């Protein structure tokens, strides 16, 4: 099976500061270590070779941050100040993170459902494919960030625009991956199904949908972090009126409260990492047949 | 030992629909490609397979043996000519699940266990059972127990394993069990053992024969191995290429059950030499205009 198509996730990295990327790296390492432990008992997260590189990298990044921050307090807040910002009012961050997270997840759910349905329609019907795909591509090349203010004008400061932006931003990566997945059925298997005269629905449910799962998970790994980007961007466009980490960042930066800005960013990074970690865990469970196939590499 | 050139067959063949006990291919023509690069895959091919027979089709690559199999399987349509599977056209035969197809690669679903893969054909196209009863060419048999079937073919202790946990030979045995499981009237096998090593191949041939002797289905088996064709078949159809045509039909008159000891005998080698000679003639005769 070919490698799943992965949409460019460059925006995710661009939106997160250095320490956020560090957090992501740490979480990523933990995730792969966990999977290795399941297969080979000899390897463990607790083995120094597994955790030392990540910790060292984190420490180096932290030291560099501090060196910059000490001499340029207008550029970066000291790490201690970020920590203090969170510790003094944890409920504040937790509440706003909850708002952003729920926007991101509900938006993602809408985007996922829509993309999945469109992918099935498009793979089953040539006419509808030719009708829908150009629209989808136009939607993809349009910067969703640019639509966000217009959506706020149209739908107000409530959750509506945030869900729409998140759904839009996650739609295309899911669509492309699921289409590729649904088509990634090997001809001999299809021949067996054809000689049995399995119905199109049977081919879809018993063959195409399971075949698409590896691609679905590849898409999920991209769009879970992307959904947070969507929610935050939408919050930027409607500041002051609602809650959410994006609003917190927007308000705090207009008041030059850098520590609060970075505290919120740190929360976003942690949220994204946890989501990614959970998706990876789920993938390991669901795709046992596929993962192991990749390992043996016939 | 009887050898009859294909051309001797009578030109007038009765309508296929009146023969519920034969697979009949009549005057099949199949041409691939456009007007500039035409390839005649099958040039007016006639073939008859009796119910219960094990027939192998052998020939060099490009002789149209797989095309012929796919015509019978209803995976392709002939440009002209007729195909009848026990009195039904391939479309109806497939709709009634009378055809079990074993492709070159095992083509198992990687997320289903061995048992899951073998029971899959019985779970799709459930209307086939009703249609089967209306077709005179179908012989009703009790559904095979997939677990017993797998045990017979030596996979009794691998029932719940996933395909990637099996060797290539085991995977192909699962594919064979899957084809047997629906009690199809004919099994169409497209070089199923070509990717296996010599030892695995011989072992699996014996298992296929044992299973076939118990189930007594009709088998059409495409191969490019002369010894495999002789060991397995009641009848070997020798094809030649450019254009694809039937060169000879050779009846293999060896006692059954065929066990490994018997197959060292001189008779086997005689048949092998005969088929090789026929393949040589086909090769030497070169391109013939269709």
UniProtKB/TrEMBL annotation, chain A:
<feature type="transmembrane region" description="Helical">
    <location>
        <begin position="135"/>
        <end position="157"/>
    </location>
</feature>
<keyword id="KW-0472">Membrane</keyword>
<comment type="similarity">
    <text>Belongs to the binding-protein-dependent transport system permease family.</text>
</comment>
<protein>
    <submittedName>
        <fullName>ABC transporter permease</fullName>
    </submittedName>
</protein>
<feature type="transmembrane region" description="Helical">
    <location>
        <begin position="163"/>
        <end position="182"/>
    </location>
</feature>
<keyword id="KW-1003">Cell membrane</keyword>
<feature type="transmembrane region" description="Helical">
    <location>
        <begin position="50"/>
        <end position="68"/>
    </location>
</feature>
<feature type="transmembrane region" description="Helical">
    <location>
        <begin position="215"/>
        <end position="238"/>
    </location>
</feature>
<feature type="transmembrane region" description="Helical">
    <location>
        <begin position="258"/>
        <end position="282"/>
    </location>
</feature>
<dbReference type="InterPro" id="IPR000515">
    <property type="entry name" value="MetI-like"/>
</dbReference>
<dbReference type="InterPro" id="IPR035906">
    <property type="entry name" value="MetI-like_sf"/>
</dbReference>
<keyword id="KW-0812">Transmembrane</keyword>
<keyword id="KW-0813">Transport</keyword>
<dbReference type="GO" id="GO:0055085">
    <property type="term" value="P:transmembrane transport"/>
</dbReference>
<feature type="transmembrane region" description="Helical">
    <location>
        <begin position="104"/>
        <end position="123"/>
    </location>
</feature>
<feature type="domain" description="ABC transmembrane type-1">
    <location>
        <begin position="93"/>
        <end position="283"/>
    </location>
</feature>
<keyword id="KW-1133">Transmembrane helix</keyword>
<dbReference type="Pfam" id="PF00528">
    <property type="entry name" value="BPD_transp_1"/>
</dbReference>
<dbReference type="GO" id="GO:0005886">
    <property type="term" value="C:plasma membrane"/>
</dbReference>
